[in-house]
Amino acid sequence: MKKILALILALVFLFSGCGAGNKSLGVSEEKITDTDIIKMKTTEVSSEQIAIEITNESKSEIGYGEAYSVEFKKDGEWHILKPKSEASFIEIGYILEKESTCTWGDKISRIYGKLPEGEYRLLKDFTIYENGGTVAENVTLAVQFRIG
User: Fold this and answer.
1) DSSP letter string over 95-118?
2) What spatial distance separates the first Cα and last Cα of the chain, rounded to whole Å?
3) What is the C-alpha to C-alpha distance for residues 40 and 103, in angstroms, rounded to an integer?
4) Which residues, at least 6 apart from 144, have a Cβ–Cβ distance to it below 8 Å?
5) How many whole angstroms separate alpha carbon 96 and alpha carbon 144?
6) Which residues have CB under 8 Å from 110's CB, separation 6+?
7) Residue 87 neighbours by CB under 8 Å, 6+ apart
8) How confident is the model at residue 25, as a pLDDT?
9) Which residues contact residue 26 at a Cβ distance below 8 angstroms, ignoring those fewer than 6 apart?
10) What is the percentage of the chain residues whose pLDDT exceeds 70?
C-alpha cells in the first residue's frame, strides 16, 4: 500500500511541472493603435527585464508613465499574462519632447516572474498633446519580443 501511495505522489509531482508556463487571464481584446508618430523598439530583453527605446517623431509632446502590461502568443492569439502578484507602478508622468528619443525599462520579473520561452508583447499607453498642452489623443502601443 505504501509503495502505491509513494508511486501516486511521485506521479503527481512529476506531472504538476509539465504544464508549467504562462498563465492566461484570457484572450486579449486590447486595441493597439496604428501610429507613425511614436515608435518603440526593444534594446534589451531577457526573461527578467526589458528596456525599450521610445521615439517621438511628431511635432508635439507625448506623455507616458511607468505602467505597462505583457501578453503572450498562444495558438496564434495574444493572451493577457497573469501577474504573479498585484502589479503596482509609481504614479509618475514623463514628457517626451517633440522629435526626440528616450530609453525606458523595468524588471518584468517583479510583476510576472521569470518569463519562460515564448513570444511576448509589451503594451504601453501614451498621450499625445497638442500645442498648448491639451490632450489630442490617447494611444496604446505594443512592442513584440521573444524569450529563448
Assistant:
1) EE-TTEEEEEEE-THHHH-SPPSE
2) 44
3) 9
4) 119, 120, 121
5) 22
6) none
7) 67, 69, 111
8) 80
9) 79, 80
10) 86
**CA gap 13, 47 in Å, rounded:** 25
Tens of pLDDT, residues 9-53: 333 332 333 334 688 888 988 899 889 999 999 999 999 999 999
Buried b (16+ CB within 10 A) or exposed e, 97-124: eeeeeeebebebeebbbebeebebbbbb
pLDDT in tens, 75-97: 999 999 999 978 788 899 999 99
C-alpha cell at 143: 512592442
Instruction: Copy the grid coordinates of residue 135.
Output: 490632450
25: its cell numbers? 487571464
Cell 530609453 belongs to residue? 103
Q: Which three cell numbers stand for residue 85?
A: 502578484
